């Protein structure tokens, strides 16, 4: 739909929607914009943990996106994890606290192997017999060592006040130029999935990752953790991205020299890999053999990201809201356009591709899409499309009802409804049709209009036209126009029906009867009004919309209309009420017609056979009258004289029938060609 058409439709929608529906639609559009633009990581208000309702769905979509585009890498040779695993606990017969004597021996060997730095993801928060040995080793370390630190402020579930006090004393005792504390705090979302770098808390030492490898560009980084997947080997196997060894192996003096190459120049992380302890879900949980990742490996993953300089760029907030506006706007315009299916399907495909594809494209290009409301885009689009669609349908329905009511003033309701459903049936150009055309006229109304007040003229005329219009519509006709007190109607367009002829004939008689009822029910003081005269003809006409650019009218043009008009006018001279041509009579299917002779209508050279509906005239008399008039068609003068005498006898039997008397008069003064000329 062209832009101008959309603007007009939008303006009409705003104008016709109504105040309350417009307010509701506006509220839904604002909600759609909010869903499509809000960063689902952010709480809904300061000091509250309430999240946007779509947060869980957004997390699931983000995890799938992050896992699908996670880089596959060979084993990282810059980092080594030394772990206490369940086998270590069995061998040392200690579970909590972890064996510090084993740690002391391992640290002594690592220091001699030339490690780049050592990070210990263990809290020394309660005493152990080997504390003295460990402290002695720590004070002698030449390699930078970072001791894990936490406090009550950010780790209340794992440390109590007494533990906090012991931890602080231990770190003070161990602290040297090479041994310092570092925060081992990790953040998870409400579903216990680690996705982001933690936000530092006041008074905390530096994050373990930043302590082991300082980086100004990552000092304020709070974006997504870049998780990685291992490269698949030719045999289908996968090596862990971060290599790990049991701490026992480096604590053993016999084994340590053989492993020196794995330690030299590397960042060494020491911690636990124990079942059900310090386990985190990550976006890769569904893509790995293990559903969780130990906290030590999360630290190692963050350290690798820092070493790679992979600071993921977040989508700017302005871009996010602009995208939300585009999504909501596209949905609204698509709904407003009311496209046909062959145009709607491509439009939906393009928009669906953009909504689904842009987050994937950004993720593949290395952007941080964690806060991108992908699900919000879908919901915002659906909500905006629905809101505009419902409002537009409500207005369209209201307009349709108005249009049907308006069309119902000129067309039968069933035809009006059919045209509204299938507008192509209402030809926007002229087309030839065989139609039944009806003209009426109220005798003496023009003269009457000069004798009474204008207000009374308008009141009477409106009531009269309403009565005749109701008759036309009740009989399935189309009202063409009103010309003063005259009604022009036709049957057979815009939709033709098999019973159009019968309905047109019945309507012609009923309109005369309605006129008689109108005459009998005039207000006091109004002079008598003459008869309603009706003319009916069937023939070819050009039907369609005619007019200029500013105004058109659905009407019929052609000889059929002229003939019907002259038939109506002939009633005055022939003292009849309703006259129909032979064509209309034959196609009506009714048997109440009586022939009224052959005349040449005013302005016409070809005679027309006339028929009048006469349901109260005896059927046998109608048959006799038809035979009498047929005799005038022959050349036998004697037969014509006999027919004339029989016609006189019939007129004498119906002395009050002015139309019959007029018929006799015409056949007494019949002209050449067996027809009587009017005018």
Folded structure, characterized:
α2 runs antiparallel to α14 and α14 (374-407) runs antiparallel to α15 (413-421). The strands form five sheets. Strands 13, 14, 15, 16, 17, 18, 19, 20 and 21 form a nine-stranded mixed β-sheet that branches. A six-stranded parallel β-sheet has the order 5-4-3-8-2-7, sandwiched between helices. By secondary structure, it is of the alpha/beta class. β4 (145-149), α7 and β5 form a beta-alpha-beta unit. The mean pLDDT is 87.
Main β sheet profile: 9 strands, mixed
Strands, count: 21
Radius of gyration: 49 Å
Number of helices: 23
Alpha-beta content class: alpha/beta
- Let me know the average pLDDT: 87
Q: Give the strand content.
A: 15-25%
Shape type: rod-shaped
List the SSEs and their pairings.
Layout: H1 3-16, H2 19-37, H3 55-68, E1 72-73, E2 79-85, H4 86-92, H5 100-113, E3 117-120, H6 131-139, E4 145-149, H7 161-174, E5 179-183, H8 208-212, E6 229-230, E7 244-246, H9 247-251, H10 260-263, E8 267-273, E9 279-280, E10 293-294, H11 295-308, E11 313-314, H12 317-337, H13 341-364, E12 367-368, H14 374-407, H15 413-421, E13 431-442, H16 445-449, H17 454-474, E14 478-483, E15 486-491, H18 500-520, E16 532-547, E17 552-557, H19 559-574, E18 578-581, H20 582-588, E19 593-600, E20 608-613, H21 619-631, H22 637-653, H23 658-668, E21 676-677
Parallel strand pairs: 1-6, 2-7, 2-8, 3-4, 3-8, 4-5, 11-12, 16-18, 19-21
Antiparallel strand pairs: 9-10, 13-15, 13-16, 14-15, 16-17, 18-20, 19-20
Helix pairs in contact: 2-12, 2-14, 5-6, 12-14, 14-15, 17-18, 18-20, 21-22, 22-23
């Amino acid at each position: 739909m062209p832009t101008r058409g959309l603007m007009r439709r939008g303006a009409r929608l705003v104008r016709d929607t109504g105040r309350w529906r417009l307010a509701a639609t506006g509220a839904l559009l604002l909600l759609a914009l909010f869903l499509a633009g809000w960063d689902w990581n952010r709480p809904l208000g300061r000091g509250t943990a309430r999240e946007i309702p779509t947060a869980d769905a957004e997390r699931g979509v983000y995890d799938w996106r992050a896992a699908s585009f996670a880089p596959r890498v060979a084993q990282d040779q810059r980092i080594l994890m030394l772990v206490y695993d369940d086998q270590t606990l069995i061998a040392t017969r200690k579970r909590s606290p972890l064996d510090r004597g084993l740690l002391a021996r391992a640290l002594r060997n690592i220091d001699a192997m030339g490690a780049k730095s050592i990070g210990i993801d263990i809290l020394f928060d309660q005493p152990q017999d080997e504390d003295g040995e460990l402290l002695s080793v720590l004070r002698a370390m030449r390699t930078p060592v970072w001791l894990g630190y936490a406090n009550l402020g950010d780790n209340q579930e794992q440390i109590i006040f007494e533990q906090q006090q012991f931890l602080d004393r231990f770190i003070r005792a161990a602290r040297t130029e090479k041994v310092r504390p570092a925060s081992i705090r990790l953040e998870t979302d409400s579903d216990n999935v680690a996705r982001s770098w933690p936000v530092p808390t006041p008074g905390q030492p530096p994050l373990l990752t930043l302590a082991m490898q300082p980086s100004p560009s990552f000092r304020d980084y709070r974006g997504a953790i870049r998780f990685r997947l291992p490269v698949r080997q030719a045999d289908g196997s996968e090596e862990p991205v971060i290599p790990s060894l049991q701490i026992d192996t480096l604590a053993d003096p016999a084994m340590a020299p053989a492993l020196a190459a794995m330690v030299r120049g590397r960042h060494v992380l020491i911690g636990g890999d124990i079942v059900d302890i310090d386990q985190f879900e990550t976006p890769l949980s569904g893509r790995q053999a293990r559903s969780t990742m130990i906290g030590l490996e999360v630290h190692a993953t963050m350290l690798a990201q820092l070493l790679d300089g992979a600071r993921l760029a977040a989508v700017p907030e302005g871009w996010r809201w602009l995208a939300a506006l585009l999504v909501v706007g596209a949905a609204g315009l698509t709904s407003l356009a009311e496209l046909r299916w062959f145009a709607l399907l491509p439009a939906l495909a393009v928009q669906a591709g953009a909504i689904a594809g842009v987050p994937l494209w950004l993720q593949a290009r290395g952007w941080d899409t964690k806060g991108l409301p992908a699900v919000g885009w879908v919901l915002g689009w659906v909500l905006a499309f629905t809101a505009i669609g419902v409002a537009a349908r409500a207005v369209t329905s209201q307009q349709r009802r108005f249009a049907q009511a308006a069309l119902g003033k000129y067309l039968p309701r069933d035809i009006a409804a059919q045209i509204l459903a299938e507008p192509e049936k209402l030809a926007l150009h002229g087309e030839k049709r065989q139609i039944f055309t009806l003209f009426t006229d109220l005798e003496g109304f023009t003269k009457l209009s000069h004798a009474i007040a204008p207000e009374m003229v308008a009141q009477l005329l409106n009531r009269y036209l309403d009565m005749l219009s109701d008759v036309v519509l009740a009989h399935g006709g189309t009202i063409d126009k009103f010309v003063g007190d005259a009604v022009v109607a036709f049957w057979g367009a815009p939709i033709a029906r098999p019973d159009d002829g019968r309905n047109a004939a019945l309507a012609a008689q009923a309109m005369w009867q309605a006129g008689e009822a109108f005459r009998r029910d005039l207000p006091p003081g109004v002079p008598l009004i003459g008869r309603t005269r009706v003319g009916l003809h069937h023939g070819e006409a050009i039907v369609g919309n005619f007019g200029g650019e500013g105004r058109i009218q659905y009407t019929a043009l052609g000889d059929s209309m002229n003939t019907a008009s002259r038939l109506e006018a002939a009633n005055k001279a022939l003292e009849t009420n309703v006259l129909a041509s032979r064509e209309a009579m034959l196609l009506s299917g009714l048997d109440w017609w009586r022939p009224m002779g052959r005349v040449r209508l005013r302005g016409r050279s070809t005679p027309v056979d006339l028929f009048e509906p006469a349901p109260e005239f005896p059927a046998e008399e109608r048959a006799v009258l038809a035979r009498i008039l047929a005799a005038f068609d022959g050349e036998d003068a004697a037969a014509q004289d006999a027919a004339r005498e029989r016609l006189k006898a019939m007129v004498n039997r119906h002395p009050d029938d002015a139309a019959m008397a007029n018929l006799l008069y015409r056949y007494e003064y019949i002209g050449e060609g067996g027809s009587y000329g009017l005018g």
